[in-house]
Every structure is written in C-alpha cells, then in structure tokens.
Design goal:
The chain is α+β, with helices and mostly antiparallel strands. It is built from 19 helices and ten strands.
Length: about 450
C-alpha cells in the first residue's frame, strides 16, 4: 500500500464524496486507468469509513493499487482541463499555447459564432491577488490599443468555477520563435517587413503612454498573409502608473535574451526606449539566427546586456546591408540616451532601408568612412579605433567623423613643399658663392 508523499500528492485532487470525486471517476473511466467495478469498490470503502476526514477517491484507488501516484497527477491535469473548458459562452477547441502564467485556447464564441482566443489563468494563480490583478491589467492595457499589428482585446471575466479568462482576437499563424524553431532563416527583406510592422505597432502603443516591456519572437505572430501581430501584454505598463513603478522597483521584468539594461537594473523610469532595445534585439535574432547575447544562465545573459559589447549583426551575417546593422546598433545602445529618441525615428529608418536607401537617424551616429568601406566591398570590416580596454556602451556606437589630418609622409610628398625646399637650397648656394667672392677679394 502507498503512503506518505504519494498520498499527499493525490489528496490535493479532491475530498471524499465531493463533486471533484465524481469528475475524477469519469476521467479515470475515460482514460481507461481503472474499471467501473474498481471505482465502485473504493466508493463503498468511503461510505463505510468512520474516519471524519474521509479519504479521497484517488487516495483509495492508490491504496488498492488500482492506479499509481503518477497516474493520479495526470488525472488531476485532465480534471483541471475539463473544468477550464466549461467557460460559459465558449466552446474550447484546443490549446494554442501555454506559458508560465496562463494557457491560451482556441475557442468558438457561441453567441456570435466566431473563433476567438481565450487566455485562462490556472487555479493556483487565481489564488494569488497579485497574479489576478496583473491578469486584468493585461486586458485593460490591450483594450487601450486598436492597431492592425496588435492582437485586439475583446473581454475579461471569471467563470462560475473561479477561472479568470481574457478573450482576444484569434490569429491564424505561428510565432516568429516557432518559425525559427522549424528551421526557417529570415532574409533581410522579411525581417525588415516584420520590423516595420512592429515599430508601427509600438509607436501606436507609445503614443498612448503604454510600454510593452516584453517584445520578442515568441510574442509576435505571423499570419500566412505576412501580417505580424504583437501579442501578450502581460508585462505592459502605463508610463504614468507610479504605483506599479514603485512596486516593481529593483526587479527585472522581461525576457533575458531581449531585455533592456534599464529593465535589468530594475529602474523605475522605464520608457519607450526599453521597447526599442528589445525590438532591436529581436531584429538581430531574425537576421543572424541567434540572440544578441547568449550564456549558460539567465543571469549570465543579462550581465552581457549590461557590460559586453555587441558583435555587429553584419559581422555575424556578412550578407546584410550596412543600413540594418546601423539601425540595430543604435536601437541596442547600452545607454538609452544613445538610442532612437522616438519610435517614429526608428520606423523612418527601417522604411528607408526597405526602400533601398540609407538610414537617416542612425547614420548620424556612425563612422561614415567605415560604412563606405563595407558598402564597397560587401564585407564586414574591423574598426579597431572603437576597441577599448573595458566593455563600455561606446563600443556599440561609432565615433563622429573627425577632420582628416595630413600624415608626415604625405606632407613631405606635397609639390609645394618640394618647390620650397628647392628654392631654399638655391638660395643657400647663391649666398655661399657671394660670401666666397667677398672673402677672396684683395
């Protein structure tokens, strides 16, 4: 007979004689883990028990070796799924994805007979007021936005069983992360098209004083028609939400591979430039096939965002144009003062590159001679003048172009200098002759 931890794990499924036990019995039969006779045998044991703390049906099934503790855990998951699927007004058709905070289902909204996506907060999260509050804030944040490249919010609510849900627009497509996982490499043109759509979406959000704070490939869905949709506003924050800023001070909210340095430091004043950094990191991943910084642990990756110089994207993928490398460098500057000073500026540069021209705003901050060399040869070049002893933000940005100074060797070869030297030598010779004549006179 099983006892100890196994029973404790199973006991969390439900108490004896409860509605949960009834649901558990149905699931066990559906899964073929026990027969009806075995279930009835355990139910009879429940009825005959004089213990005021009657054992659950699952406990008794384990005690009688009809199921194992691992099977009991699987049963619990099935029961939770069935309860979740009983959201009033929706027919849940299958899972679209699952994250640390919630599960997203494809569903049919019965009243309007249309497909929607429904995000459901798990029961364990629903017992935490902080998670519930954040869940509803996500819905309210999404409701403030109306843009073709942002997943539209529809409704939020709670089911009779206590499950909080968030209904949103259903998007047919895959995330950029999933597409890359399938082996697809994005061309520069594809990446630019997606980046332009995302920059436009973020400009819309920033104009309404909303910062996404988690821009990354997993949060961008691409439809079969090539429309990119920004989703998951779970970490979004209004710039005027001082209470949230104070509560979150000192904590790093975001995804390590794409998080901005100021988010890592837990600064209170997070603005649109954090999203610009994350969008730059996302573009970098798309065009190079790897995140900007990698490490064995999330802490190691975040340390590199803070201290390590970025390897230019066009050094990793030498087939890239210089323009997109410039945009990424400026977007991912360590100091936010060195990044784009508006999302519209970044959008303007992305559109200029897509049209075959150079970026306007980024090029003001880079070494033009080095870029001309890149454009002429089609290859990445080293710029040793940017290398310094310790990793600093300046490594990500080229120095302003300085006036050229003539080198000594070049000066000696100048025609004017040569002519001057000849005149000087002739003058010395003439003076020497005159002096000799004067001295030789009687």
């Amino acid at each position: 007979m099983s006892s100890g931890p196994e029973l404790n794990a199973a006991s969390s499924i439900g108490g004896a004689g409860s509605a949960v036990d009834t649901e558990i019995g149905k699931v066990i039969l559906d899964m073929g883990l026990a027969t009806r006779t075995e279930i009835e045998f355990c139910r009879e044991q429940q009825k005959q028990s004089s213990d005021p703390n009657q054992r659950s049906l699952t406990d008794l099934l384990i005690d009688n070796s009809f199921i194992t503790s691992n099977q009991a855990k699987r049963i619990r998951l099935q029961v939770d799924d069935r309860k979740t699927s009983q959201l009033p007004g929706y027919q849940l058709l299958g899972k679209l994805g699952k994250g640390a905070m919630a599960t997203v289902y494809k569903a049919r909204q019965i009243s309007l007979d249309r497909m929607v996506a429904v995000k459901v907060l798990p029961r364990k999260m629903s017992e935490n007021p902080e998670f519930v509050d954040r869940f509803y804030k996500e819905g309210k944040a999404a409701a403030r936005l109306s843009h073709n490249n942002i997943v539209q919010a529809i409704d939020v609510g709670v089911s009779p069983e206590g499950y909080h849900y968030f209904e949103m627009e259903y998007i047919e497509g895959k995330t950029l992360y999933d597409i890359m996982q399938e082996g697809h490499s994005f061309s520069e043109a594809e990446a630019l098209d997606i980046a332009i759509q995302m920059a436009d979406a973020l400009a819309h959000a920033h104009l309404r004083q909303l910062i996404h704070r988690d821009v990354k490939p997993k949060n961008i869905i691409l439809t079969p028609q090539g429309v990119a949709k920004l989703t998951d506003l779970g970490l979004a924050r209004a710039t005027d939400d001082k209470l949230a800023a104070e509560t979150e001070a000192g904590k790093a909210y975001g995804t390590p591979y794409y998080i901005s340095p100021e988010q890592i430091r837990g600064e209170m004043e997070i603005d649109f430039r954090a999203d610009i950094y994350s969008l730059g990191a996302t573009i970098y991943h798309l065009v190079t096939g790897r995140p900007p910084f990698e490490g064995d642990t999330p802490a190691a990756v975040m340390h590199k965002h803070l201290k390590q110089a970025l390897i230019p994207a066009d050094h990793v993928n030498t087939g890239l144009s210089a323009g997109i490398g410039e945009v990424i460098d400026v977007a991912m500057a360590k100091k936010r003062e060195d990044r784009y000073q508006s999302t519209e500026d970044m959008l303007e540069d992305l559109r200029a590159i897509a049209a075959g021209g150079p970026p306007v705003h980024a090029r003001q901050n880079v070494d033009l001679d080095a870029l001309e060399n890149v454009e002429e040869t089609g290859k990445a070049v080293d710029m040793p003048q940017l290398i310094i002893e310790e990793p600093k933000p300046e490594q990500l940005r080229s120095r302003p172009r300085r006036a050229e100074q003539p080198q000594p060797a070049a000066a000696l070869r100048s025609p004017l200098v040569i002519a001057g030297l000849i005149v000087l030598l002739v003058s010395l010779l003439v003076n020497s002759v005159l002096l000799y004549v004067l001295l030789s006179a009687p």
